[in-house]
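TL;DR need structure tokens for one chain.
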Amino acid sequence: KSKSFHFTFTKEENHDFSLEYISLSHPFLKLMESKSDEVCYSSVNNNSYSNGYAVVYREEIYAHKKFTTLKTVIVDENLKLVDSLDYYSFASSCNSTSDIAPVDDLEKKKNAIESQIIKQLSISVASKTSETEQLINQKIRVLQEHYEKKKAYAQKMEAKVSNLDVIRMRQAQVENIKQLEEQKVSALKKQMEVSGNYKILGIVELTHG
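>> reply
TL;DR here they are.
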């Protein structure tokens, strides 16, 4: 589950250091300022990770509704996976530096690191698929129980009459209930479909301050 991220733009408000101070050169603002078709390149001091790279990306999971999360993949100098976490947890341990990593070098690393993001996306999709299936199957069970009661009631009413016209009306009612149930179940099953996408927002060279 993603953590909350509390920040301030004024140093004076951060008396107990419980807020992240966002300066003009903070990586969070750089990502916010970045155009939708651009990737932000930077170098930061990080209290938890060093001598590696962080790739910040937006993950979008499409299920019964859209889920969007900012995430970060941390890799070492050999581009091996070190950690995967939400962006706000990563940003809270970062401090901006004056050095900007060479864009050409990071662009090459972006292509290599992308496979790690695809793996993380696959894990997220699998997790959301399992969660969605449980949710939808529960809804289907409740729905089926509801329509079983309606069918049982209609059949009970049918058994109490002898007029053929009324019997046919009751039988038609049961068929209508079955068709409506099938339509509702089919619509719910379509909501089980889960897919994912991602967009790289920033590549960060990590140093230890």
